[in-house]
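Lab notebook, page 48
Experiment: co-folding of the full assembly
Goal: obtain a model of how the components sit together before planning crosslinking
Operator: M.T.
Materials (sequences as entered):
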Amino acid sequence: MSRIITVGAAQMGPIQKDHSRSEVVERLIDLLRKAHQSGCDLVVFPELALTTFFPRWFVDDISQADHWYETEMPSPITQPLFDEAKKLEIGFCLGYAELTTDGHRFNTQILVEKDGSVVAKYRKVHIPGHEHNEPNRPFQHAERYYFEPSMEGFGVWKAFGGRLGMMICNDRRWPESYRVMGLQGVEMILCGYNTPIHYVPDPSQDILQGFHNSLVMQSGAYQNGSWVVGVAKGGVEEGVDSLGQSVIVAPSGQIVAQAFTTGDELITARCDLDWCAKYTGTLFDFERYRRPEVYGRITSQRGVVID
Ligand code: CDT
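Observation: model returned without errors.
Model output:
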């Protein structure tokens, strides 16, 4: 029997600073309904899908930013999204900023099953950008000030009839993210992102943002025989233009659906999880062909060491 997940990548356009959580939840519910009408089992929302991308501003006292974080999930404001999903029997994946009861701050994504239960929580591992205010930049990317890196790593969960994993934005640029999930037999990886088109440390990369976005997800999918669903919050948000180009990538590395706007847009694909085995059982049969005995540097060393 074939195992199909019809997945929706629910790209969002900008969320401005003065947009309320309730307004945003309405947009998410609208996308959820569209996904339901398209026959989706699962809909994936972007990174930090409830607020503007607040790490673009610096505050001297981090508690001034507490209002951007969720302290519970669901909360009274997000409960209507959970209720609607349960009513429609559709699962979802949602990114948000998490402030734990003991004061830890994470960039988080949850996976919610069709019955409304939270089956998995993933906290971002690779935190890009900078820790301190850099006033000469046109905008900040102070994720390293606002979020601590997760020590929990990359999990894979049984859900939606398959084995699903999650990663968030910058994680998609690192082959280790995919491979750690690949070694757990992942069949579909869900990834929300916010990617400013202007890369301040090296503007020569600006024109390549779309290329690099699909390059990393296509290669990660192919090299690990997994579906990858990459979902943007794109468009001009508080003056910062961000990449759209949400994609659904097959285990072959081929793009099977791609967003063509930078606004709220749903793309979908019927994903046959058994397609993964065509790759994980042949060219990328890890058990047969990998050589972990010569990969020691991957985990024993962080930066480049020149002998
Ligand atoms: N949100 C996020 O991780 N964005 C990064 C931008 C890198 S530039 C500091 C990304 O990899 O797309």
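Interpretation: The two ends are 53 Å apart (CA to CA).
Next step: discuss with group before ordering constructs.
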